[in-house]
């Protein structure tokens, strides 16, 4: 059984951003549709629900079967998908707490899927960004996490804004807001 990514500082930072931004977005669009790619434990799905996004409008996917099962147990729409591979439709909000750390041979194999984003840390993020535009509604927003250690993010085709950051002992985390 694969390990589910346990909520950590990056999860909590993204959750804070959602708590701040979703109510404003819902005031303009009460029928907002949200997709989380890489749902993990489902912490951000819970945040969306607590922010009054309708449960039937919350969708998620994860490549990890254990994470999919956990989200389904919590009552969320969740499917097994490698990023957007099996996703259909368009969303007002897409959120992603990706694996963003550069490859490190000391990283245990059991946690690499959740933490390692490739050689530079950006390979999975760049795959996500390449396809995300196709699933974002007009005036929609993407929120995703990265680290100061993540190198080579390709923001081409997006208007980007760094909307949150958190300094930790060993790194600095960022949350980005993207629009097309």
List keywords for this structure.
globular, single chain, 180 residues, 7-stranded mixed beta sheet, alpha/beta
From the N-terminal CA to the C-terminal CA, the straight-line distance is: 38 Å
The portion of residues assigned to helices is 25-40%
Task: Describe the global form.
Answer: globular
What Rg, in angstroms, do the CA atoms define? Answer: 15 Å
- Percent of residues in beta strands: 25-35%
Helix tally equals 5
Question: Mean pLDDT score, rounded?
Answer: 90
Q: What kind of sheet is the major sheet? A: 7 strands, mixed
Return residue spans where pLDDT drops below 50 for at least 5 consecutive residues. Answer: none
Strand order of the largest sheet: 3-2-1-4-5-7-6
Describe the fold and architecture:
With about 180 residues, the chain is of the alpha/beta class. About 30% of the residues lie in helices and about 25% in strands. The protein has five helices and seven strands. The chain has a seven-stranded mixed beta sheet, with helices on one face. Helix 1 packs parallel to helix 2. The model has no long low-confidence stretch (mean pLDDT about 90).
Helix-strand blueprint:
Layout: H1 9-28, E1 34-37, H2 43-50, E2 58-62, H3 65-73, E3 77-80, E4 91-96, H4 109-115, H5 123-132, E5 136-147, E6 159-167, E7 172-179
Parallel strand pairs: 1-2, 1-4, 2-3, 4-5
Antiparallel strand pairs: 5-7, 6-7
Helix pairs in contact: 1-2
């Amino acid at each position: 059984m694969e390990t589910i990514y346990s909520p950590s500082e990056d999860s909590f930072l993204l959750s804070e951003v959602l708590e701040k931004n979703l109510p404003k977005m819902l005031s303009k669009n009460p029928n907002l549709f949200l997709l989380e790619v890489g749902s993990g434990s489902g912490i951000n799905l819970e945040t969306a629900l607590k922010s009054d996004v309708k449960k039937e409008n919350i969708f998620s996917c994860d490549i990890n079967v254990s994470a999919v099962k956990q989200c389904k147990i919590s009552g969320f729409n969740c499917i097994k998908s490698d990023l957007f591979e099996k996703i259909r439709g368009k969303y007002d909000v897409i959120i992603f707490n990706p694996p963003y750390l550069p490859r490190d041979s000391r990283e245990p194999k059991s946690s690499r899927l959740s933490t390692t984003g490739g050689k530079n840390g950006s390979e999975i993020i760049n795959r996500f960004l390449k396809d995300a535009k196709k699933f974002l509604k007009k005036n929609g927003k993407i929120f995703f996490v990265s680290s100061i250690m993540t190198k080579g993010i390709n923001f081409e085709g997006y208007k980007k804004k760094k909307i949150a950051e958190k300094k930790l002992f060993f790194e600095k985390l960022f949350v980005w807001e993207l629009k097309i």
